[in-house]
Amino acid sequence: MPRRATLTGVAAALAIAAVLVTGCGGSSRLSPAEFAKRADAECTQADKSAPQTAPRTAKQAVRYTQQQIDGRTALDAKLRKLSPPKSESGTFASFNAGTAELLGVLRQQGTAAQKNDENRYAKLNDVFSKIAQAREKLAAALGFKVCGRSVVAGAKK
Predict the structure, then answer these.
(1) At 25, phi and psi to the nearest 5?
(2) Is there a domain that residue 85 lies in?
(3) d(Cα 27, Cα 10) in Å, to the nearest integer?
């Protein structure tokens, strides 16, 4: 009998602990505004080290695409550590899927640049642009002003 009481007590304690850990829906989740603010801060920082000049030669394109891959991969990892609001988790998952697609295209561009295949590189640039446009709509839905946006809000034309 004492063993059963102990097991019941342990089970009850685990249930209470689970409720305390999860709280009322995850206190670690950010509000929509705070989520967008933190994501944009990460993207602003990443933009400072991103290559600013488009490549003109195949050799430059190889270096450029690798810098893009490295920077975007690091940024993606940082963004995935943020906890989006539950209401935005599906949109953020789609945004992340778009990021993965963009990285795949960049890898293909890197291969095309290594082979000095300008036509393939240009076609992939068009593919990249289409994915980026779709992803930009997701960024807007998430309230991002920097992340995933081709034009920073408030920038002069």
Answers:
(1) 125, 15
(2) yes
(3) 25
CA angle 79, 51, 130 (to 5 degrees): 65
Looking at the domain assignment, is residue 19 inside a domain? no
Q: Residue 115 is encoded by which pair of tokens?
A: 């082979």
Percent of all residues in the chain with a pLDDT value above 90, rounded to a whole number: 71
Phi-psi region of 26 (alpha: psi -120 to 50; beta: other; left: phi over 0): left
- Give Rg (Cα) of the chain: 22
Give the pTM. Answer: 0.77
The CATH number covering residue 63 comes to 1.20.120
Alpha carbon distance 72, 78 (integer Å): 10
Digit-coded pLDDT (tens) for 49-78: 888 888 999 999 999 999 999 999 999 999
Count of domains forming the chain: 1
Residue 139 CA to residue 41 CA, distance in Å, equals 14
The residue written with tokens 């801060």 in the block is 41
Tell whether 10 is covered by a domain: no
Residue range(s) defining the domain that contains residue 58: 30-141
